[in-house]
Design a protein that fits this description.
The complex is a heterodimer of chains A (about 230) and B (about 400).
Chain A (H helix, E strand, L loop, with lengths): L2 H7 L2 E14 L2 E14 L3 E5 L6 H8 L7 E6 L2 E2 L5 H11 E4 L11 H6 L9 H14 L15 H13 L5 E5 L7 H16 L4 E5 L3 H5 L3 E6 L2 E2 L2
Parallel strand pairs in A: 3-8, 3-9, 6-7, 7-8
Antiparallel strand pairs in A: 1-2, 1-4, 4-5, 9-10
Helix pairs in contact in A: 5-6, 6-7
Chain B lengths: L2 H8 L4 H33 L5 E6 L7 E2 L1 H7 L4 E9 L2 E2 L10 E4 L1 H7 L3 E2 L2 H9 L3 E5 H7 L6 E6 L4 E13 L9 E4 H7 L7 E2 L1 E6 L5 H11 L7 E5 H10 L2 H32 L1 H9 L4 H42 L11 H18 L1 H9 L2 H6 L3
Parallel strand pairs in B: 5-10, 7-9
Antiparallel strand pairs in B: 1-12, 1-13, 2-11, 3-5, 3-12, 4-8, 6-9, 7-10, 8-9
Helix pairs in contact in B: 1-12, 2-9, 2-10, 2-12, 2-13, 10-12, 10-13, 10-14, 12-13, 12-14
Classes of the chains: A alpha/beta (about 230), B alpha+beta (about 400).
Chain lengths: ~230, ~400
């Protein structure tokens, strides 16, 4: 068992060990993450900050199992996600990760409750059970009366709350949020941050949030600053 | 809710584009129905020709005449049970010179014995047989011209110039849809006695009923053998082969229509493919989100193929909903009435309805294959970066 895997078994939810991520841009190799080590405890609320191009989103993609490291280990909840193939990572994401995107990314042709129900289509649950769980998730974000509305009929803050309901409907261990308040006014942003705090404190979700917003970062228990692919703190 | 439901709803994301695509598919389905019906209608007479009839014509050409005595001589050939002859007359109604209908001289009773699918009340057959100038007209032609039994009509001869007076002795119907119900049959005696002596005692072609459809080729050969040493030789064949030889003269047109209908199918596929590809490209980011939350490439493929299939099915249904009544109730009766000699039965067959629908649906599915394949191969991170 590697150090990272040992760490995971002691309450570490996310463990990255000497993680490098490089991209090829023509003849040039771009090293976005340069041998990064990171440990995040279970039930933690962490913010990733840094200038554009510092590698925040790339790091988040690795934690979420959307991408693979060029080298190093990515152990999430005891699973070596970095070593999984695409199909394994998709299945793993479906049950372990909830996504909150900056631009909400709801399906415009589906109502709020149908959007929340979407990840459950992979769970092979009866339709009634899927709908029941989606309604519970919507209630958890305070939108039980907006279930039948299309995204175009909701405000930005409401759309983001639907996205959070979609992220928690499968009861994942980790929620990754990429600039969750980036498109919102201050009032709506505060509501979303309160909701994320609630998910962290009341439901024990581990939250990793990329943000440029210092006010949003203040809500996190730990703030990691990235610069040129390495953690500054 | 399932993947298919989402795919179906996605079709209406861009209502104008979908409406234009469906309109194009609808028009193409209508034209496809029309062209295939033209081909079917033209070839149906050959395909549905009687199995137990053979036709005999001049060996050189259709337009050359046979000696009338051959009719009697053919009766003695083993296997032949009934014989009738016919001669093309060619006439026009002076009040409607642009309207074409067939005018053919026959001997009433032998003709109706050989062509027993033509139905005429017995008293009308008797009246026709006893009146030298009597004529039997199809119910479609009679209705179109407003002709009644007992009415005298005058036609202008084209091959045999002059005014020809006929008496409507009967109106026929038919129990086979491929029988032209716009023909005027009249007494051969009237034609033969009225034309110059040098043209008398000649007939256009001879049709015979045979006792065994399986021996059609053999009996046809026996007929030709009987006349092979004469000045005028014959060419005999089954009615189906005879009809097919008629079709051979228009085979180039049929082939062209065939090609045009195939080109239409290809255009339909391209239109559907373009619409699906545009929609998929615009939604790349959404597919990225779906992949991120755990959907697999195969789900994306199902998603896009369902969209293509449904779009094709919808186009097919709308096309048939408009095209079927258009051909069946509008064009069909008009073609049968005005061009009955070529299109005795111009209707959409149930098989063509099924084929048109399956074709539209299948094309939608096929057109979605490449966009589906492309979308399913996208890396999640790249797809998430794409906007619109």
């Amino acid at each position: 068992m590697s150090e990272a895997e040992k760490g995971a078994s002691k309450g570490t939810m996310i463990s990255l060990e000497k993680v490098r991520k490089s991209f090829q841009r023509g003849r040039e190799q771009l090293d976005v993450l340069a041998g990064l080590d990171l440990k995040i405890e279970e039930g933690s609320f962490e913010a990733l900050m840094g200038p554009s191009g510092s590698g925040k989103s790339t790091l988040l993609n690795l934690i979420a199992g959307l991408d693979q490291p060029t080298s190093g280990k990515v152990i999430i909840g005891g699973a070596d996600v970095g070593a999984m193939n695409e199909g394994q990572r998709a299945n793993w994401r479906a049950s372990n990760i909830g996504f909150v995107f900056q631009t909400y990314n709801l399906m415009p042709v589906l109502t709020a409750v149908e959007n929340v129900e979407l990840p459950l289509l992979l769970a092979k649950l009866p339709a009634a059970e899927r709908r029941k769980r989606a309604e519970i998730a919507l209630r958890a974000v305070g939108l039980e009366d907006r279930g039948g509305h299309l995204p175009s009929q909701l405000s930005g803050g409401q759309e983001q709350r639907v996205t959070i309901a979609r992220a928690i409907v499968t009861d994942p261990k980790i929620i990754v949020a990429d600039e969750p308040t980036g498109d919102l006014d201050r009032h709506s942003a505060d509501e979303i941050l309160k909701l994320l705090e609630k998910l962290n404190t009341e439901f024990g979700k581990t939250i990793v949030m990329v943000t440029h917003d210092p006010a949003a970062a203040e809500r996190a228990k730990t703030v990691h600053r990235l610069d040129k692919g390495v953690l500054a703190n | 809710m399932g993947l298919v439901t989402i795919a179906v709803r996605n079709i209406w994301r861009n209502k104008l584009r979908t409406a234009l695509t469906l309109s194009a598919v609808t028009v193409l389905v209508i034209f496809f129905l029309l062209l295939r019906t033209v081909i079917w209608s033209w070839t149906a007479s050959a395909e549905q020709a009687s199995q137990d009839r053979i036709g005999t014509r001049h060996k050189v050409s259709f337009i050359m005449q046979l000696p009338a005595r051959y009719v009697e001589e053919m009766r003695s050939i083993p296997g032949i049970t009934k014989v009738a002859h016919a001669s093309w007359f060619g006439a026009k109604d002076p009040n409607h010179t642009d309207d074409f209908f067939s005018t053919i001289a026959v001997e009433p009773k032998p003709f109706l014995e050989v062509y027993d699918e033509i139905k005429v009340p017995k008293d009308q057959v008797e009246a026709w047989a006893q009146d030298r100038q009597g004529a039997l007209v199809g119910d479609v032609l009679a209705k179109k011209r407003g002709w009644k039994i007992g009415q005298k009509i005058v036609l202008q001869g084209t091959i045999y110039p002059g005014d020809w007076e006929f008496h409507i002795s009967g109106i026929y119907t038919a129990d086979s849809p491929t029988v032209d119900r716009s023909t005027l049959w009249f007494q051969y005696k009237y034609l033969d006695e009225s034309r110059p002596p040098r043209l008398q005692d000649q007939v256009g072609w001879i049709m015979a009923r045979i006792d065994n459809p399986g021996r059609a080729a053999e009996i046809a050969k026996a007929v030709d053998k009987k006349f092979e040493d004469r000045d005028i030789q014959t060419l005999s064949m089954s009615e189906r082969a005879l009809q097919a030889s008629f079709l051979g003269m228009v085979s180039a047109i049929l082939r062209l229509i065939d090609i045009v209908s195939i080109v239409m199918v290809l255009i339909m596929g391209l239109i559907l493919g373009n619409t699906i590809a545009m929609g998929v490209r615009e939604r790349t980011h959404e597919y990225g989100v779906l992949r991120a939350i755990g959907f697999l490439p195969k789900h994306i493929v199902i998603f896009i193929l369902s969209e293509g299939l449904f779009l094709g099915m919808l186009g097919g249904v709308i096309g048939l909903a408009i095209g079927y009544p258009f051909v069946q109730k509008g064009m069909g009766p008009a073609m049968e009435e005005n061009l009955g000699a070529f299109f005795a039965f111009f209707r959409v067959t149930p098989e063509l309805v099924v084929i048109s629908f399956l074709l539209a649906a299948g094309l939608g599915l096929v057109a979605a294959i490449i966009p589906a394949r492309t979308a399913s191969k996208l890396e999640v991170v790249s797809a998430l970066r794409r906007v619109g």
